[in-house]
Amino acid sequence: MKFTANQIAEILEGDIVGDPNTEVSKLAKIEEGTEGSLTFLSNEKYTSYIYTTQASIAIVNKSFEPTQDISATLIKVDDAYAAFTKLLTFYNEVKQNKTGKETPHFISESAETGINLYLGAFAYIGNNVKIGDDVKIYPHCYIGDNVTIADGTTLFSGVKVYSDCIIGSNVKIHAGAIIGADGFGFAPDENKVYTAIPQIGNVIIEDNVDIGANTTIDRATLGSTIIRKGVKLDNLIQVAHNCKIDENTVIAAQTGISGSTKIGKRNMIGGQAGFAGHIKIGDDVVVSGFSGVRKNVKDKDIVIGFPAYNINKWNKSSAIVRNLPSYVAKISELEKEIKALKGE
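RESULT FIELD:
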């Protein structure tokens, strides 16, 4: 797929310096630019590369004035970083603009599908499924009975959505994610033999949610596990049954959230954090990576450590721990002095 400098300038509302017919077919970092690639310059630290890059087109700020000859055609914009991000979004949309139904696939006769559906090979759509417009379901996806998927949502290869789950509009679920598997619910009898507790709830994912590859979100025992609008989940996250994650919270990879935990709005949670079950995390909370959260956290708190607690207290404790060797030496000296005094 090729684009000319003139086409790119129209998309970005930029000014061309050089040949408007220059063509590019790929994107590259400025220090790795090759012929036929498009790059950008927004950080002054990389200015030297604009004079040596082999990229055919470079997006730069309007304030940029070259001091040497540049081989690339320039497109000048107000904000090069924002413009390149816009172009990446456009490029991604064009690249993923798939339609039609590949074969083989299975669609239940009772399923309802909207317009412009893309259905990859070996995809399965069960009974009474409702799928909106402009939905993309990549190969090897499984959509269980009674699932609802709203407009503009994309399920990448190998996503599994169990029965009765509800997925909103403009949701992206990446490869291998599993939505609505049974929660980890087992009851022991008098002989410590565990019997599965039926998990008859579902998962609700609201609009504009992103879910990373191989993330798992378990269905509720009763009611719903809920992911509110705007939530961003990284790869390899486990969300257990009956959890609720509120609007615009972002969670990094390998985080585990135990059952019935409630996480508030606009939280930022670092990688490999762990949450005990049945706790409540407030709004605008920051949880540092590797932290183990075992109790409720109030709004706007920043917690770190295992068990996790307020970062200011943690910093003080950390300073004490770092000085423990000197404290031990001082205590040893004091013990010697006490012994000497007793001896006298």
